[in-house]
Amino acid sequence: MNIPILKTPDDHARAFEAARQPYQSNYYAMYSSLLGAITLDGAFMQVPLDDHVVHRGDGVFDTFKCVGGAAYNLEAHLARLMQSAAGIGLEWKGGVGDIRRLTLETLRAANRAECTCRIMLSRGPGGFGVSPYESKGPGLYIVVIKSGTPFMDLHPEGAHVLRSAVPAKPGFWATIKSCNYLPNVFMKREAVDAKTDFTLGFDDAGHLTEGAVENAGIVTRGGALVFPELRNILAGTTMLRVMELARGLRGLVNGVEVRGITGDEVADAAELLIVGTTINVVAGVEYNGKPVGDSKPGPVYKVLHDALVADMAKNSAVRTA
After folding, report:
1. Distance between CA atoms of 59 and 33, rounded to whole angstroms?
2. 155: containing domain
């Protein structure tokens, strides 16, 4: 059987149509700087193979969600995107203001009150070598997709957690949200293969780092909420917001700390919390096969979960739908 050869735009359109997949219905809108346009058809949401983000992972991204027709914590996500871009020497000509404008236009084209938006700033197309100078200029891709369901909505009993065997990223790479996510992929595969919910990484000093795409912290038996130092983890926007909300929980939380957390401290914690953009706040009720606290979602989890959900619900500053 001969492989079809696509020669005309119509040939390509028919091929994309024939290759359409059911999951593409979860892709609501995409902006591509290479086209200078937004498409609402998931089958046509494509990135060039010669973009260095594809064959080298040379790019950065950030992801936020919209709740009730408003972008949640957008400015924090844009700031982190630009910080990551600066870390790899990548600039967008229009700056953060232009990315913000294009993001909001793409969200409004999607016209979904509940959705997730991912912004990818790439080195751009222009060859298959490793040199970043080979690219002819950066690429910007903004995609709006269906939001995932928060973990505790599906598993109100809480999460089972294991210590990861995947080596933690060195500090410099951990603090940049690059598109090279192979260690994160390994951690997620590790969790799936072990039939557990999350795995957590530890650095060479034996201190807690983060999960595949989540941050983690503990509530000590003395009532302190503790998250790892930011020098060896990604500064999670949800984590930072949860810390801010926790500072108002007088009487329930005895201080908010950022410091090294050992594996023994995780095992002995009153509560284990896992936080992220999609999952919100999760209660870890088992760690390495042993119960955390009384093996049920604890009081700090419950209050912080409700506080974050309320914070998202009242968020209306940046309307998108």
Report:
1. 14
2. 151-313
The residue out of 100, 127, 145 marking a domain boundary is: 145
Q: Is 4 helix (H, G, I), strand (E, B) or coil?
A: coil
Residue 203 backbone phi and psi in degrees, to 5: -85, -175
Question: By CB neighbour count within 10 A (0-12 exposed, 13-18 middle, 19+ buried), where does 154 fall?
Answer: exposed
| CB burial string 116-151: b at 16+ within 10 A, e below | bbbbbbbbbbbeeeeeeebbeebbbbbbbbebeebb
Q: Is 93 labeled as catalytic in the residue annotation? A: no
Tell me the CATH number at 183. 3.20.10.10
Give the whole-angstrom CA distance, residue 126 versus residue 141: 16
- Is the whole-model pTM more than 0.90? yes
The pLDDT tens digits of the residues spanning 162-203 come to: 999 999 999 899 999 999 999 999 999 999 999 999 999 999
Torsion sign, CA atoms 207, 77, 182, 281: positive
Cα-to-chain-centroid distance, residue 31 = 19
Residue 279 CA to residue 118 CA, distance in Å, equals 16
The catalytically annotated residue of 65, 146, 169, 177 is 177
Verify that 205 and 281 share a domain, yes or no: yes
The rounded Cα 83 to chain-centroid distance in angstroms is 15
The number of domains in the chain is 2
Helices assigned H by DSSP within 127-273: 151-154, 171-174, 182-193, 237-246, 263-267
% of the chain residues with pLDDT over 90:
94
**pLDDT tens across 91-135, in order?**
999 999 999 999 999 999 999 999 999 999 999 999 999 999 999
Whichever domain contains 112, its CATH number is: 3.30.470.10
